[in-house]
Design a protein that fits this description.
Pfam families: Aldedh. This is Aldehyde dehydrogenase. InterPro entries: Ald_DH/histidinol_DH, Ald_DH_C, Ald_DH_CS_CYS, Ald_DH_CS_GLU, Ald_DH_N, Aldehyde_DH_dom. The protein has helices at 11-17, 56-75, 78-93, 96-107, 111-131, 168-181, 196-206, 221-230, 243-256, 278-288, 311-323, 343-358, 395-398, 414-422, 437-446, 480-487; strands spanning 22-24, 27-29, 36-40, 47-52, 147-155, 158-162, 185-189, 214-217, 234-240, 260-263, 269-272, 303-307, 363-366, 385-388, 405-411, 426-427, 429-433, 451-454, 469-470, 473-474, 488-496. With 498 residues, the chain is of the alpha/beta class. It has 2 domains: 8-264 and 472-493, Aldehyde Dehydrogenase, Chain A, domain 1 (3-Layer(aba) Sandwich); 269-461, Aldehyde Dehydrogenase, Chain A, domain 2. The N and C termini lie far apart (49 Å). The site of 1,4-dihydronicotinamide adenine dinucleotide has 28 residues, from α8, α9 and α12.
Length: 498
């Protein structure tokens, strides 16, 4: 029987309500040590809550609850599981405003342009995967006429999901919705910068799902994430974050011989051909670079290759358009661009801006305007920066910055631009802007990336396979195929009928 959770549209009050808690075995619990750490509003620097400091003992409790719940969950029919997961989607869909506001408060992502939108996609992801439950089918295999040979899809057991702070709702949903529908239980480790909204999501889901099936821990990587990955009863880990941490997760998983899914960021190229529709391409640059999210995106179009013949007009128009975006209080409806998530990330972004300014041949263009409101004086605001005169060999064009720093690279030769776009350790996303279908088709086949678009720059959507090649990761997410491949194993059964 689902308990009614009162809607709380005041994010400050909701942050206090959720303060100091994790969600284990169907109930809120403080960390077993009693320790907490502060959750800061990046727009003001003020503390809005404490988060429980989860450690190995909490991992132990959450995994034990998940193991128990999973056994019963797996016995239910797939369609019944799917219905319940879809019901979570419906319940979350009713809380978009509540979740969006809390997300804006803890991450600094503007409510209208980012946080509310993300809360909507979260709900959609559960609805989508809930509907895929009947597709957990096996096969019959024509092996021998006297033997009935078939395959069935079985759940793995307990899935550990480690998520980052930049798009915590969507990324969590992409992991736990398919895991649950496939018959697994989950233990999520939230990002230390954004522990509250995902906790609310799990609380809402728990009012529909059996206790222990969804658990969430908050805490830091080494103290809480590492013991979750290493836990002997965790049979699968799905991770989104940095390459460095992804490799640590992969090594631990290798010791246990368990499967992993890794989504690890990028340095995504956007190639603008001479014949591109300029307005469309500039709109795509703004959307693709995620200027409204302060560029804190793994798919950010952070290398924009613009054909020499339109380079200057492209840059001027892009500057005008980004200048027109309003930076300010993330909770204000008029705000287009919010803050950077944390002081650490702010330092990183500023050090790359400084590096860009020292880069030979590069020119910095600081855009938009810092907010004037004195209440935001301590906020983690940084002006979006465009760097022109950059080459693909410069560090700012090679390293993932994860901030509002965008390189514009001038090109003239088609073969050279394709080679430069592929000359990156990453391969997550890419876009091509042209009216010429032949050129578009040639480029999409040659670009080394998991997600390639022509004349648009959409974010990940349910049913579109998402994930990278090269160091951008391992495995794909957001589709039926990803649910089957990453959250089940195939069992072959042979019945001798002779
Ligand atoms: P991170 O990769 O360290 O953190 C992501 C998640 O992993 C967090 O929940 C963190 O607590 C956890 N974690 C950290 N160490 C761990 C360990 N040893 N074992 C298990 N879990 C662990 O990323 P961070 O420090 O937040 O950001 C650093 C950089 O990583 C960013 O500047 C950005 O370039 C990149 N990044 C990429 C993301 C993506 O979407 N691909 C998301 C976040 C960051
Ligand atoms: Mg880290």
């Amino acid at each position: 029987m689902s308990a009614t959770i009162a809607l709380q549209l005041d994010p400050f009050a909701l942050a206090k309500e959720l303060s100091g808690k994790q969600f284990i075995d169907g109930e809120f619990r403080p960390a077993s040590s009693g320790k907490t750490f502060p959750v800061i509003n990046p727009a003001t620097g003020e503390e809005v809550a404490q988060a429980a400091f989860g450690e190995a003992a909490d991992v132990e409790a959450a995994v034990a609850a998940a193991v128990k719940a999973q056994k019963e969950w797996a016995k239910r029919g797939a369609r019944e599981r799917g219905k319940l997961v879809a019901a979570c989607g419906a319940a979350l869909g009713e809380r978009v405003e509540e979740l969006g506001r809390l997300l804006a408060l803890e991450t600094g992502k503007a409510l209208r342009t980012e946080s509310r939108v993300e809360a909507g996609v979260l709900a959609d992801m559960f609805t989508f995967f809930g509907g895929l439950a009947p597709e957990l089918k096996g096969e019959t295999v024509p092996f021998n006429p006297t033997m009935l040979t078939m395959t069935v899809r079985e759940p793995i057991g307990v899935v550990g999901a480690i998520i980052p702070w930049n798009v915590p709702l969507l990324l969590m949903a992409m992991k736990i919705a398919p895991a649950l529908v496939a018959g697994n239980a989950v233990v999520v480790k939230s990002a230390e910068e954004a522990p509250l909204t995902v906790l609310r999501v799990i609380q809402i889901m728990n009012s529909i799902l059996p206790p222990g099936l969804v658990n969430i821990l908050s805490g830091f990587g080494p103290e809480c994430g590492a013991p979750l990955v290493a836990h002997p009863k965790v049979g699968k880990v799905t991770f989104t974050g940095s390459v460095e941490t992804g490799k640590i997760v992969y090594r631990t998983a290798a010791d246990k011989l368990i499967p992993v899914t890794l989504e690890l960021g990028g340095k995504s190229p956007m190639i603008v051909m001479a014949d591109a529709d300029l307005d469309q391409a500039i709109g795509g640059a703004i959307a693709g670079m995620r200027f409204t999210r302060q560029g804190q995106s793994c798919t950010a179009s952070s290398r924009i290759f613009v054909h020499d013949s339109i380079h200057d007009v492209f840059v001027e128009t892009l500057k005008e358009k980004v200048n027109a975006l309003k930076m300010g209080d993330p909770l204000d409806e008029a705000t287009d661009i919010g803050t950077i998530v944390s002081p650490q990330q702010m330092d990183r972004v500023q050090s790359y801006i400084a590096l860009g300014k020292e880069t030979k041949g590069a020119t910095a263009h600081a855009l938009s305007a810092m907010p004037a409101d004195p209440k935001l004086a301590k906020g983690l605001f940084v002006q979006p920066h465009l760097f022109t005169g950059v080459t693909n060999d410069d560090r700012i064009a090679r390293e993932e910055i994860f901030g509002p720093v965008c390189c514009v690279i001038r090109w003239t030769d088609y073969e050279e631009v394709i080679a430069a776009a592929n000359d990156s350790e990453y391969g997550l996303a890419a876009t091509v802007w042209t009216r010429d279908l032949k050129v578009a088709m040639d480029a999409v086949h040659r670009l080394e990336a998991g997600f390639v678009q022509v004349n648009q720059n959409l974010v990940v959507q349910p049913n579109l396979s998402y994930g990278g090649v090269k160091t951008s990761g391992l495995g794909k997410e957001a589709t039926l195929e990803s649910m089957l491949e990453h959250f089940t194993h195939k069992k072959t059964i042979i019945i001798n009928m002779k």
